[in-house]
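Work Package 3 (structural annotation) set out to generate three-dimensional models for the target panel prioritized at the project kickoff. During this period the team completed the workflow that converts sequence records into discrete structure tokens, so that structures can be stored uniformly alongside our sequence database. As a representative example, we reproduce one entry of 306 residues exactly as it appears in the project archive.
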Amino acid sequence: MMRFVARRLLAMIPVLLGVILLIMVTIDLIPGDPAALMLGQGATPEMVAKLRASLDLDQPLPVRYVRYIARLLRGDLGRSVREGRQVNTEIADVWPATVQLGLAAMTLAVAIGIPVGMLSARRPYSLLDNLVRVVSLAGLSMPIFWTGIMLVVVFSLWLGWLPAGGRGSWYHLILPAVTLATPSIAMLARMTRSTMLEVLREDFIRTAQAKGVATRGVMVRHALRNALIPVVTILGLQTGQLLGGAVLTETVFAWPGIGRMLVRAIFARDYVLLQGGVLVLAVTFVVINLLVDLSYAYLDPRITYQ
């Protein structure tokens, strides 16, 4: 197990190096001088040249890349151009809000998506199953920002039950968490239904039923555990979708997380802050997928890591 984890951690290095290179190349492809865009129209040539030198923008891409990696190894993500603060500090300030929102959304997705998928698989092609499939398709089809706006209109403006934005009490968390969780709930429900239907046709299920195991025991102890591996895989991939969806959700609900920080960095042309934020999201996604891979051995003891 430890050797497998060590290999996976080593495999993360080229992935992250590629992500950093991709971010830098993308910034280079943006039309115009990044330093001039960051300083605005009132900047003098001297100010632009000074900023270019401080950000290594006057250096070729390979030199900038190596210098950034060297700073990264020292734990230095650079300094935000607009705010003047260390990017580490900026991310540390907003990261807890994003983690809180992501955990709430993922908890909702697991608590609703998997049980609904099980109920749907238990009685395939029934009224409940058809309803679940239609609602799941609608949940996957709706753009996340539209879902958020509709929830604000109904529950904040019309009914006045929940706040429309900001972060404070648990009431502020409900609407953005539901918005962010909606596509994941739909995906988990559909995946759980399809994998459960396959498992329920296996011989060991019929054997358990012949031994008199109750339906609930067959569904939970025998069928669900064997159907969970593809569901957990989708769950790991959905975490990446959650991180991407957090950018829109946090913007719609003025949630002070890393997604809103990235949008602010884009509009402010603060490429140092943008680069650091995207890198942190990439590291989070890679680590979560490593944890998903490790969970396979717990779900299926036949899987071993060498």
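The two ends are 6 Å apart (CA to CA).
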